[in-house]
């Protein structure tokens, strides 16, 4: 079964910067990523044991797959696409708050 939108969005946001490194590597742009990445762009670092929560990336993916599998709704609006949109919007709001826009 292909990954769903909650898994893709959740992993891209919550596993950053590791997810960005993996995505850059998969399209042959790891060198560019390494040359442009800086400590100020380090994402949430949930996987980091030093600056984050130390969440195992395999555990994160397993959790996101479980959320996606159980995400059923009789409401046509509250779909997994809507859940991913809410996740992305929350991410944007958090990032805007970091820059002093709140």
Account of the 3D structure:
The chain is mostly helical and 102 residues long. The protein has 5 helices and no strands. α1 (5-14) packs parallel to α5 (80-98). It is globular and about 45 Å long. The model has no long low-confidence stretch (mean pLDDT 78).
What's the topology here?
Layout: H1 5-14, H2 18-26, H3 30-36, H4 57-70, H5 80-98
Can I get a quick summary?
The protein is an all-alpha fold.
Main features:
globular, 102 residues, mainly alpha
| Main sheet: strands, sense, barrel | none
Strand content: under 5%
Kindly state the number of beta strands.
0
Task: Give the averaged pLDDT, no decimals.
Answer: 78
Q: Please estimate the helix content.
A: 55-70%
Radius of gyration, CA atoms, in whole angstroms: 15 Å
Q: Total number of helical segments?
A: 5
The general outline is globular
Distance between the termini: 40 Å
Supply the helix-strand structural class: mainly alpha
| H and E order | HHHHH
Low-confidence stretches: none
């Amino acid at each position: 079964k292909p990954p769903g939108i909650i898994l893709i969005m959740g992993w891209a946001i919550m596993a950053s910067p590791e997810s960005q490194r993996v995505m850059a590597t998969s399209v042959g742009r790891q060198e560019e990523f390494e040359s442009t990445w800086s400590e100020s762009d380090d994402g949430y670092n949930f996987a980091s044991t030093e600056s984050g929560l130390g969440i195992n990336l395999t555990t994160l993916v397993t959790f996101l797959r479980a959320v996606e599998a159980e995400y059923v709704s009789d409401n046509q609006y509250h779909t997994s696409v809507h859940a991913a949109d809410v996740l992305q919007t929350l991410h944007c709001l958090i990032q805007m708050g970091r820059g002093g826009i709140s």
